[in-house]
Amino acid sequence: MEEGPPDPERAATPTLTAVARMAGVSPITVSRVVRRPDIVSAETRQRVEDAIRKLGYVPNMVAGSLASARTKSVGVLVPTIANSIFADTVQGLSDVLEPQGYSVILAQSGYDPLREDRMLAALLSRRPEAIIMVGAPLTADGAEMLRRARIPVVETWELPAAPIDAAVGFDNHDAGVVVARHFASAGRQRLAFVGGDDRRATQRWHGFVEAARQVGLEDPRRVVVEWQSGAGAGTAALAEVPDADAVFAANDAYAIGLLSALRRAGRLQAEPGATPAIGVVGLGDLEMGRLFSPTVSTIRIDGAAIGRAAAELALDPAKPRRVDLGFELIVRESG
Known about the structure:
CATH topology of the largest domain: Rossmann fold
CATH architecture of the largest domain: 3-Layer(aba) Sandwich
Distance between the termini: 61 Å
Radius of gyration: 23 Å
Shape: elongated
CATH class of the largest domain: Alpha Beta
Low-confidence stretches: 1-11, 64-68
Number of strands: 12
Number of helices: 12
Strand order of the largest sheet: 2-1-3-4-5-11
Helix content: 40-55%
């Protein structure tokens, strides 16, 4: 069947004029909604915002400069900088970008899909020359916004089969598999998983439960915690799975929180070298996990290496667009 002509409103990068046409207002009204929404009526503002969302329009906040001018900036979106491993990734990419004369514009999503879309729009409005983000976009609108930007986009900390442009990270599903098999080989029987319900944690959970089934164990239980401190997550996990003998925590902060809760409950072995009653494995290999007592078993991820590789992919479109840096299980005192 012969295809019809392309929709001119969606064939190219959306413009302010296209938004005005779709919303049935003047271009100056669109500009006011973007820059001074408080002076536009709620009904008009809603029509304009709907058109902006439908077209994937991103305002140009550097419109005063020449259209062809380079901004020498890279937008970076992370869930949070409270987790030091993401800070390692930002440091790694900065180590590559800054000597090349690029500045880094940093934003946080807080694991919130709508906030992520707002932050992506804010970053793109500054006309960066690339976007680097932890994970893949959480919404279809966010992904479309990035595709329309026509700049390098690097997704990190996971390996989507079809990234928008490029991806560098590791297989989160396989990380779950490795931890479940480790627990099974240690004779653990009652497994649990504690973490958020974001995509990367869910991939780890799926690998964890599938591997447990393969070795004949009962299905592990999953404790979903809100984005919170490790102490809060640890307390919640201990309350919900009090009889577990092995727990995979989605990150080291949660693992340390759980170990702290176990200590307060008097359930940590006091004798050095003794097998812990509850085995705990985290992810990230944070320094505090190496200093904690007991030292924390973990999936080691090189966050800084992810950042460096992401920056190189953003600067050089000729490089392979999907890079797997892998991970390593580090077994320490926590089991």
